[in-house]
Design goal:
three-stranded mixed β-sheet
C-alpha cells in the first residue's frame, strides 16, 4: 500500500475576472518549487469561502493540501479569519445558520468547517476560533500538543516528519488513522530495505 503525502501549499485568493468561460473561479500560478498558488474568483457569483473550498478539493486531487489561505485586497478582519482557519485546515462558511461560531467536522474525511453566523463580528470569530476548534476536535488538539512537545524534545531532528504528521492530522481530523498510515509506510520502507539487502 502506497501512501501519498500531500505537499503543503499557500493559496493567495484574489477577486477578479475569471478568464475561463463558464467558471466562477480558477486556480493559476501553481508553483511546486515554492509551494504557492493563486485563486481568482468572481465575487458576484461566488463567495471566498466556497471558492477556497472548491480549490481545496481540486488541489487535493493533484497532491496538494492548502496549509494557508491569504486573502489579497480584502479587509483585515476577514483576512485574519481565513488565515487562522486555514492554518488549522478548516474551511470557512460565512452566513451559516448557527447561533455562534463553531467548528463542524466533515463526515467524508474531508476538512472540517468553521461556521460563522451571518452578521457576526469577524474579529470576534477569529478570537473564538482556537476554543471552537478545541471543543469540536479534542483528539486532534491532543495530537498536535503531543507533536509540539516532541518537537521541543528532539532538537529539530525529525521536525519535518512531525510537521507532515500534524498537517495530515489537521486535514483528516483522525490522528489514529494518520499514525497507522505512517507506521505502515515506515514499516513498508523498512521491509523493502531488508529485502534489497538480503
Amino acid at each position: 500500500m502506497t501512501i501519498t503525502i500531500p505537499r503543503d501549499l499557500a493559496l493567495t485568493v484574489r477577486r477578479g475576472p475569471v478568464t475561463s468561460p463558464g467558471k466562477v473561479a480558477e486556480i493559476c500560478d501553481v508553483r511546486r518549487t515554492d509551494g504557492t498558488a493563486t485563486l481568482v474568483y468572481d465575487r458576484h457569483r461566488i463567495n471566498p469561502g466556497t471558492a477556497v473550498w472548491f480549490a481545496r478539493i481540486l488541489l487535493r486531487e493533484h497532491g496538494y493540501a492548502v496549509s494557508e489561505v491569504i486573502l489579497d485586497g480584502m479587509g483585515p478582519d476577514i483576512t485574519a479569519l481565513f488565515r487562522d482557519a486555514s492554518r488549522l485546515r478548516l474551511n470557512i462558511e460565512l452566513g451559516s445558520r448557527v447561533t455562534t461560531p463553531k467548528v463542524i467536522d466533515c463526515d467524508d474525511n474531508g476538512p472540517a468547517s468553521y461556521q460563522v453566523p451571518g452578521g457576526w463580528d469577524l474579529a470576534d470569530a477569529t478570537d473564538r476560533l482556537p476554543a471552537a476548534h478545541a471543543a469540536a476536535r479534542p483528539k486532534v488538539v491532543r495530537a498536535l500538543r503531543t507533536i509540539a512537545e516532541e518537537k521541543r524534545k528532539n532538537g529539530g531532528i525529525i521536525d519535518t516528519a512531525l510537521d507532515v504528521a500534524a498537517g495530515m492530522i489537521l486535514e483528516t481530523g483522525d490522528p489514529d488513522q494518520v499514525w497507522d498510515a505512517l507506521t505502515r509506510a515506515l514499516g513498508q520502507d523498512e521491509s523493502e530495505r531488508t529485502q534489497v539487502s538480503a
